[in-house]
Amino acid sequence: MITIDNKKNIGITRGDNASFNLKVKQANNTYYQFKTSDRVYFTVKKNYADSTPIIRKIITFRNTTDTCTINLVSSDTNYGSLIAGERKYVYDISINEVETVVGYDQDGAKYFIIYPEASNDV
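Above: the chain's sequence. Below: its structure in token form.
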């Protein structure tokens, strides 16, 4: 399960696979066109000052498009040991590591929340 709320906080169940699309609306109301060789960096950390990411995805484009799909696999969301409650981290998304398109802004931090698994049965 993955959810994204109106404040761009992401929630996912520990161990789940999920994907979501990113479109970047520009000031002129058009969408940014990702170009060949553009890179999108999706980074999740314990806090923004932390230098070691928990999750780091780098998407490199081979074609021009206005949509970036970010795929998370079980090993990305299976961070740490089994948990009894939610764990809250922060994330940001940048283009070519020079422009942050989702991250800390006037609305505050953007959270990546990992929820416990519903069942730990084997």
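The chain has a mean pLDDT of 92.
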